[in-house]
Amino acid sequence: MAAPADRATPGGLPAGAGAPAVPDPCLLVIFGASGDLARRKLVPALFDLHREKMLPGGFAVLGVSRTAHTDASFRERLIAAAREVAGAGFDAGAWEAFASRLFYHPGDILDAEGFPALRDRVRSLCGERGIPGNLLFYLSLAPKHYAAAVRGIGASGLSAPEEGLAGFRRVVIEKPFGNDLAGAKILSAEVSAVFREEQVFRIDHYLGKETVQNLLVFRFGNGIFEPLWNRNYVDHVQITAAEEIGVESRGDYYDGAGAVRDMLQNHLLQLLALVAMEPPISLSADDVRDEKLKLLRSVEPVPPGMLGEACVRGQYAAGTVRGQAVPAYRSERGVPPGSLTETYVAARFTVDNWRWGGVPFYLRSGKRLAGRVSEIAIRFRPAPYRLFEDTACGQMESNQLVLNIQPDEGIFLQFGAKFPGPSICVQPVQFRFSYEQAFGGKSPPAYGRLLLDAMLGDAALFPREDIVEVSWALLEPYLERWRENPGQDLYYYPAGSWGPGEADALLAREGRQWRTP
Ligand code: BG6
Question: More exposed terminus of the chain, fewer Cβ within 10 Å: N or C?
Fold first, then answer.
């Protein structure tokens, strides 16, 4: 196990590191605050920031949605989820103090009649809480409402600083940003009519995960890996985001999205960019994003005749996950019985540049799979076998480096070692690094880091407009193909498996196979 040279202090940074920046006082206005995202992710992440003393003194949350709540009933609703996320370590005293920062306003940003009351509430809350007027808006809404919500924020006057309500205005927009390239462009035009690019934070929560942030440090903060990180040494790369859960209560949203829009267009392509990009000139938002953009622009378009071979979609049928019988996707709540939406996608990409020419990147993601794991596996080219061909070795495995994003946050390097005994036999063994062992405890929630960055105005971990568009452009040939024939490239897999057999064939055609995590 790797041990840190300078062990982290509990809940803090290693000795010698500078203190983390604390944002200026601000009001976070969450539209869609009675929804699942706010309850299960945003508020627990804010609670975590509160306990870590990373929120400014003047900080409050104003939840806005149509449900009739009071401040008290809103807080009551949130405590259950916060307890669930924190588990046995839930700190009731800290929650009391944090809950006094949570407020609720029943209203609908899509309804112009409600604007004056919302503005009054924002004004009075800022006055009471000593907030000079910095406002961060979070669109925790169904994606189809993003454009109207941004228009509403503009029309309500809340997007512009005014007397008594000065300071910054920023908006956080959940993914998927648009439904395709054309949709993303329309949404960008709507957003830029109200906010400048530096005020817009398109969130992709994968980028807030510690293990994902570590990709840059691992690659560029160490001398020994980068020289191997290219087509001379790497045979191929596999990026997996597998889930055991189904669509849960999100059938309505999910059926209009599917795995391609929900995971591939954003989380997986962002991982591809981070694993394959060149070192940025600095860690500034634009330098990092310029490199990602360059990489994504180097991804080769798949020739039209090859589309059916380079991407496979799947939908889960009934099956068994962890010993529990689970229904088919088409029987889930909110999903039409004849749905052709994919819950699984596997796609092959290549990057046409000097570093990666000819190296396939296989990306896959699915729901109701046999395990929950997100990881990036770098498969190195095999060693020449001749030396071992007269031994009892059998086929030797090539080296692989696996960056485990979750749940077992860590990294391992697999290599061959001599199995003890009189004959020569090579067995795969591993060097392992575990975050938990090295740094203690679980990593902080991704949403916390991203909310903090949005409050600080640091956009390095948020995809820029051009990156979102190039990601859509990469998928556009597929989207076009499935628009014409919605059931094309769609195969069924039993819940609890590793996806459709056709996805295995995608690699087998090239003499490779998926790693079983
Ligand atoms: C979200 C998707 O962005 O990511 C969900 O909308 C998915 O469908 C989730 O379940 C997975 O996130 P995580 O952090 O649990 O891997």
Answer: N
